[in-house]
Amino acid sequence: MEFTQLIARKHLRWQRTIGWMVAALVIISGIYLMVGELFINPFGSLSALEQQLITQLRLPRLFAALAIGASLAVSGAVLQVLLGNVLAEPGVLGISGGASVMMVMLMFFLPTLATPAGFMVAAVIGAMLFTLLLVTLTRALRLTTTRLLLIGVALGILASSVVTWAFYFSDDMSLRILMYWLMGSIGGASWYQHVLTLFTLPVMIWLCCQGSLLDKLMMGETHAKQLGVDVEGVRWKLILAVSILVGGAVALGGVISFVGLVVPHLLRLALGTENRYLVPISALAGASLLAFSDIVARTALDSAELPLGVVTTTIGAPIFVWMLVKNHDAR
Amino acid sequence: MMHVNSLSVGSRLLPLSFDAKPGEVIHVIGPNGSGKSTLLSAVAGLLDCQGDIELDGVNLNHVSIAQLADYRAFLIQSDRPAFNLEVAHYLALSIPANSANSAQEIEQVVVELAETLAVKDKLHRSVHQLSGGEWQRVRLCAICLQVWPTLNPYAKLLILDEPAAPLDIGQEALLYQLIEKDAAMGLTVLMSNHDLNRTLKHADRAILLDKGVMQAFGSVEEVLSPERLASVFNTPVQRVQVGNKQILLFD
To answer: In CATH, what is the architecture of A2-326?
Structure first.
């Protein structure tokens, strides 16, 4: 029973990891709610202030961190399969940038539509345009990893130049909102914004169920088609799903890089590439990582706060460099 | 029974017709760029084409991609995937979706296939650690798994594009053993091949292509005549008898 055993052993290992990840997520979330400017003892009785603090500030913020982390990690994992490239990531490839550009344009040209829903739609459209551009280029020009990354970086620069223009022409209020997006921060997260999470959650769950399809797609498009996957149709659905996730994440917390790259990539290295498990575990690990980063962002400085994007970039960029140097991609 | 009726792909493959019986091994031969891969992709349903392909009364033009995967398997000439995964996982992806077999039966088939192709000790390895020949045999294993008649009752056709390309002569012998096994179970095998002596020895019938045109279709004896090969491949060809074997000699 060698073959069956091998498969079963692998499944067991994945399932155990899921257990660990859920535990880590619960513990980190618990700590998240406790620590801060005011330490809240979970075992004592809560004062009215502490209750307010938890339900109105820390809880929505925690959910925002979890939603963004999970969205980015899942979209990173799916994007890697979609582009056939283990170093693909929405932040690095400029897709998050695309989303922020559309949001900036919305803010300047159609200020009446600048509601959370409006921002979400704009961010999704921006993310989709950039994803489409990348997928088309990758397929038409058969881009190698290096070229794909270069084009992504160029798109990112393009996006940030548009945002810089916006800086130049903005007044004090919109300047602050712009800074918020650019650095990535969830300091202002409120329950109202979680309307967005309601949209991203079903998409995320749908993607988590596409494991076997992603597995087949991962083996190359012709082989996938040969195995009975309608590659063209599936590609569109995946692009749309990734765009909704990235758009939602950007609308919630701005441009937060490297979560989508580091999380699925390290999981692949450590455990393998079974997407049926990899995608949900990426979601759990991404959520944990972002919650942890936000704890750092909230507590690292006395009576001040670091932008969340800065923390993830500080953690993620060295790992990215290490990945490039080790050259894990196969092409 | 498979009937291919005036199948054509733009100017890359001009209309051609042939048929094949269950259990028959048909080789597609011809110079590089003569349209062998185009023909195979078109028959596999992965390429837009004109004409009809009928498999046991089912017209494949009207069948969905997902259903096609039950009827036929197609080994493309491909490079490695960008992702690293275990051989066992790779094989598991090719187990027919409609198979109602127990894990034990699947296990049996996988082990039988892996033993035939001498890759049983590679099941736990990751794909990127395999040599070219090992990877090709693992792919062959997966393709055969997809249309193995005991697992997939709808399976009718096995299409292989240059399956022997990265294999050495010993591994090539394993490949031809496997193809014989598949054919003996009632699959039609359609494959392109560069080694004409192998075609002479192992094929039931052959299709000779040149510049997208079918030059000949029929028994191997007939299609692989030295004169015809010499004119198509533009090189002198001799057919000699060694012992009781026919062998083609090239300049």
So the answer is: Orthogonal Bundle (1.10)
